[in-house]
Amino acid sequence: MDPLPHPAPLASKLRNTLVRYHSIGDGEWRVAKKTKDATVWRKPSEEFSGYLYKAQGVVEDVTNRIVDHIRPGPYRLDWDSLMTSMDIMETFEENCCVMRYTTAGQLWNIIAPREFVDFSYTTSYEDGLLTCGISLDYGEVRPNFVRGFNHPCGWFCVPLKDSPGHSLLTGYIQTELRGMLPQSAVDTAMSSTLANFYSDLKKALRT
């Protein structure tokens, strides 16, 4: 098990990585799934042998409230159907923490429940916010779970210029689920999970 990293350099590196992903040209992405709530694209990841996914959709709410529902905190467990538990293990400052969370089985349990330990950081970006994270090799793996690994991932949320009550939410996700899994099952699950994330989030914000 690694010791906890110093938060400031890790946060800075993570932000820079996400901003770089955000500047990748449209031509490098391939559409993986499209729903009324979101479009999901993918491209080969630079971090591991799977894909970097990009998801984007317009959400009717202000930036701060949307990000409060996404980042570690009391809201997330209430509405995210994939997340089954979440504990804040360490808090460095208000916008920076280490959390452990578990996810439900997917695809008729072909993908068994997973556990993740992530460093999470939320910061300003343009007129909105960026909340981002990366997995750490920290803490004991609990029985009955496979420990997954999130390579740099995050959500940009910025208000729409012509409609301030709406925000453009763009996510970058690259999750290494680990364990013995067919890659096609992982790819199917990731695209669907990201599209469902938007519809579940929109329902939660309306309540």
Give a description of the structure.
The termini are far apart. Strands 1, 2, 3, 4, 5, 6, 7, 8, 10 and 11 form a ten-stranded mixed sheet that branches. The protein has a two-stranded antiparallel sheet with strand order 9-12. The chain is about 25% helix and about 40% strand. The mean pLDDT is about 90. The protein has one domain (about 5-20, about 30-205): START domain (Alpha-D-Glucose-1,6-Bisphosphate, Chain A, domain 4). The protein contains four helices and twelve strands; from the N terminus they run H-E-E-E-H-H-E-E-E-E-E-E-E-E-E-H. It comes from Prunella himalayana. This is STAR4 protein.
Name the structural class. alpha+beta
Please indicate the count of domains. 1
Task: Estimate the strand proportion.
Answer: 35-45%
Basic shape: globular
| CATH architecture assignment name | 2-Layer Sandwich
Provide the helix percentage. Answer: 25-40%
- Which regions are unreliable across 5 or more consecutive residues at pLDDT < 50? none
Q: Give a short account of the largest sheet.
A: 10 strands, mixed
CATH class: Alpha Beta
Name of the CATH homologous superfamily: START domain
Mean pLDDT: 92
CATH topology: Alpha-D-Glucose-1,6-Bisphosphate, Chain A, domain 4
Euclidean distance between termini CA atoms:
41 Å
| CA-based gyration radius | 16 Å
Number of helices: 4
GO molecular function: cholesterol binding; cholesterol transfer activity
InterPro entries: StarD4, START-like_dom_sf, START_lipid-bd_dom
Protein name: STAR4 protein
Pfam family, one: START
